[in-house]
């Protein structure tokens, strides 16, 4: 990968899911029920995890680093 500083570890994803709060819920998503959970990764860098709640585990769809220019300070709401 050309940008190792942008990689998100499984530990960061697990931390976000375990400590984060659901801020957006998409029960009617065409790919199946999914939700958005904000969290913090290494050095408190803000991340979002999109996952699909399953009976025994959350299936991770994607995780990404946030841009401070696009999100409010708490990273739960996009700037208008």
TrEMBL record:
What InterPro entries is this protein classified in? DUF4258
Q: Name one Pfam family in it.
A: DUF4258
Q: What is this protein called?
A: DUF4258 domain-containing protein
**What taxonomic classification does the UniProt entry list for its organism?**
Bacteria, Pseudomonadati, Planctomycetota, Candidatus Brocadiia, Candidatus Brocadiales
